[in-house]
Structures are given as structure tokens and as C-alpha cells.
Amino acid sequence: METRSNHRVRFKTFELDLSSRELRRNSVRLKLQGQPVEVLAMLLERPGEVVTRDEMRRRLWPEDAFVDFEHSLNSAVRRLREALGDNAEDPRFVETLPRLGYRFIAPVQAAADGAAKTPSSQNGQGVLAAPDATVKSQAETPQPTHSEETPNPHPKRRHAILAACCACILLLGAVWFVYYRWRVNIPAPPVQRALTRLTSDDGLQTGATWSPDGRYIAYASDHGGKFDIWVQQINGGDPIQITKGPGQNWQPDWSPDGQYIAYRSEEGDGGIYITPALGGVGQQRKIASFGFYPHWSPDGSRILVQSNVNKFSPETSNGQIRNRCQAKMQLSGFFAKPFQLLLFEPSLILC
């Protein structure tokens, strides 16, 4: 009666237990199950002989099974080769005979008595060789190097592909960085802006200022023989004359709410006036008898004016505007043009 040890077959560094279908390499069990291990068992039962694909089909699948036999068998053989570290182009264990089948070509040794089966060309039968012959054959046969026993050569290929991909990514990143720096250093082309003429009056127009809502401009024009304040709608139409009278009126500035315009008038002794933005006879109000280039504060409660001696801030209260001397200043700078920065040394002398 055959013992369990007779069911173990060794080849190279591998050992297959034919009864339990467990494959080990250097006593370490490999995860190989199902059809791949059944294919290996069939080949080891007849080492050196051709096991046809039709024999494998009858052994692995029942007659009435509906499967893609060619694909399934090729997949099983491929997984078996991966587990053995074998290669179809240069096989060490499983040789492919195109359109016929497969043959196990490595020396096979039974675990019980040490006798080995080596593939023989005599009648295509495997012949048991004596232990001395096996030792001599193994001595004459070059032992595989560590690289030849690598179970799976594919990780090296994957590592090479991964390294190539990383190199490509780094190269693309470097190209993008150089391109980005080049684009940043390119000076932007000058913006071509179209000029639109808003007024067509005769004479000189000066001191134009936008209304807070951007719908109007106020300006001074002398086309009537002297300077007066005019308001022109941006969308077109005729300009509206805001000021009238014998004196020169100029230097307009809109209030933050767009309801009033402050301006300099040379009528009489001159001074700072305010008037409704759309004009009105008798609506002008003089708020200071001095100052030039009036400029509203953001909250509309004060007006900053330029003076050679004083800086005044007339204040409004309940819609009524009253003169109020805020502080008397010692001027240490001067205006080069309207609303240019002033340099003052305040002495804070209250009125």
C-alpha cells in the first residue's frame, strides 16, 4: 500500500503533495489552488510526456460544462508559470507545444525513495533514474541562480514602468514651471482704451468730476463768455447750466449722495458755494467767503477747502449748512494742483 509520502513529488526547490494539492517552495506553502494546481498535477504524473489540451479539458471540466475552454486553460497555465517563476519563451518547467498541449521538462523526484523521474525521449515515457544517476545529473546540470528562481519577474518590469512614469511627470512639471515663469515675465500688452467725447461746447471745459452714481459729470465751461458750472448726462442729451450770474463759477465737486455740488465762485468777494445738482434759481448757498477746490468728506457732513492760511470744515446739521471754524493751521507745504497732498503743522487754535 502506498504511503502518504509517496504522494509528494519534488522538482528543483518545489514540492507538490498530490493528495492535498499543496505546492511548497523551500517548505513554504504557495497560494496556488484550483485549475493551475490540477494542471501541474497532471504534468507531474507524466513528466517528459505531452499532455494534450483535450486531455486537460476532460480532466478539468465535465462534458456538459459550458465554458470558454481555451481562455480558461491559458489562464490556468499562465498562473501556474507565475507561481513557478517560469517563462513561456524560455521554459524551465512547463513547455508549450503549440496547438497540441504541454510537457513538464524539469527532473522530478519522488519524496519517499529519492528516485527521480527525468524526461526521456524513448517512446515519450518518463524513466525512473537511480539516485546516483540523479546526483550525477544534478551535479552536471548548472544550478539556477537566485535570479532564475525569482517567482515572478513581472515586479521588476512594473518597477521600471513606474520609474519611467515618475520621470515623465517630473519632466512635464519642469516644462510647465519654465513655461509659467516665462509667461509671468512677459510684460502685459498696453490696454487700448477708446476715448469718448462727452461735451461739444465752444470754448474751454475744465474741472470735470463724476457724480457718485456715474451717470453725470459736472464741469466748468466758458462758452457763454464766463465760467459757469454745467452738468452733462453720460448717455447723451443737452448739458444743464447750474450756475448763473456775473461772477466766474468753477472747481465743482459732487456731494457723496449726489444731491449737491460744491464749487468756487468769484462773484463779489468770492467764496465756496453749494447748489442742487440739477440747479435751481436762488438755490445757491454760500458757505465760506474763502477757499478753493472744495472737496466733500465721505459722510457729506464737511467740505475740505484749500486756503493759504486756514483749513475750514463747514459742517451740516439737519440739512442746514453752517460755517464752523474747526482749526487754524500753519501751512508748511503748498498745493501744486487741486487735491494734491498737503503738508501741515497744526497749531490747533480753536475759533
Molecular structure report:
With 351 residues, the chain is an alpha+beta fold. The chain has 5 helices and 24 strands. β16 (260-265) and β17 form a beta hairpin. It is rod-shaped, with a radius of gyration of 52 Å.
Features:
alpha+beta; 29% strand; 351 residues
Secondary-structure blueprint:
Elements: E1 8-11, E2 14-17, E3 22-25, E4 28-29, H1 35-45, E5 50-52, H2 53-60, H3 69-84, E6 94-97, E7 101-104, E8 108-110, E9 116-118, E10 127-129, H4 131-140, H5 154-185, E11 205-210, E12 216-221, E13 228-233, E14 240-241, E15 249-254, E16 260-265, E17 271-276, E18 285-288, E19 292-296, E20 303-306, E21 315-317, E22 320-322, E23 328-331, E24 344-349
Helix pairs in contact: 1-3
Which stretches of 5+ consecutive residues score pLDDT under 50?
1-5, 113-118, 120-151, 309-351
H and E string: EEEEHEHHEEEEEHHEEEEEEEEEEEEEE
Kindly provide the radius of gyration, computed on alpha-carbon positions and rounded to a whole number of angstroms: 52 Å
Helicity range: 10-25%
- Neighbour order of strands in the largest sheet: 4-3-2-1-8-9-10
- Report the major sheet: 7 strands, antiparallel
Strand content: 25-35%
Question: Can you count the helices?
Answer: 5
